Amino acid sequence: MPDNQQPDRMRDVWQTQEVEKVTITMDEIRRRADRWERRIRRRNLREYAAGAIATAVLLFQARHFSFADGWPVWLLIAGTAWMMWQLHRRGSAKPIPGDLGVTGSVRFYRQELERQRDALRAVWSWYLLPLVPGLVAVMANAAMHHRINAVWYVCLGAFPLGLAAIWKLNKAAAARIERKIEEMKSFE
Questions:
Q1: Residue 110 burial (CB < 10 Å; 0-12/13-18/19+)?
Q2: How far apart are CA 66 and CA 59, in angstroms?
Q3: How distant, in Å, are the alpha carbons of 58, 75, 130, 184 from that of 78?
Q4: 153: helix, coil or strand?
Q5: Which sign does the torsion angle of CA 134, 169, 156, 47 carry?
Q6: How far apart are alpha carbons 142 and 121 in whole angstroms?
Q7: Residues 155 and 120 sit within 8 Å (Cβ to Cβ)
């Protein structure tokens, strides 16, 4: 047999061999789904706590201003409230139903992973963007009513950098979840 046909024959044998179906047990699916649900709940609790602390600090600041002067603070409070509501709506954990079989459990877990991945991919629109008007208003208000100093410039640079860092972290988390989704697709 000529040498140039040998690689073709080997490729044909490799491509026509039977592939073992990867299986997963019901216990393993439930363990993974339960661990995922706990992780999402802990993440959301941290986010809710941060939102509550930020709101408390903003309310403390707001009491020093009339509404006409303090409206940027109220805008930030509204943005924070919107973020928390969207986190609950888009990113809350759902427990795996007890009456599903292996295939249904795999599908449910994969759909939960996809839902979290999609929420993280869209984090700019529902998590970060609601803060931008308030942050811009606070910076503009500070520039109009106070002397612009080094702290103002640091804050001016820190806001977009902070938002970009949060977006980047969430994008990386979405990529990690995508790998889990691909793994779960092999079990269906």
A1: buried
A2: 12
A3: 11, 5, 8, 38
A4: helix
A5: positive
A6: 33
A7: no
pLDDT by residue (tens digit) across 93-143?
988 888 888 788 889 999 999 999 999 999 999 999 999 999 899 888 878
Q: Which amino acid is at 102?
A: V
CA distances from 104 to 79, 83, 108 (A): 38, 32, 6
Contacts 24+ apart (CB under 8 A), 162-165: 163/128, 163/131, 163/132
DSSP code for 33: H
Output the pTM of the full model: 0.77
Q: What's the N-to-C CA distance of the chain in angstroms? A: 42
User: What are the structure tokens assigned to 142, written together?
Assistant: 């500070």
CA-CA-CA-CA torsion for 95, 91, 116, 119, nearest 10 degrees?
A: 160
Q: Give the C-alpha separation, 94 to 106, whole Å.
A: 14
The helix (run of H) or strand (run of E) holding residue 84 is helix 67-91
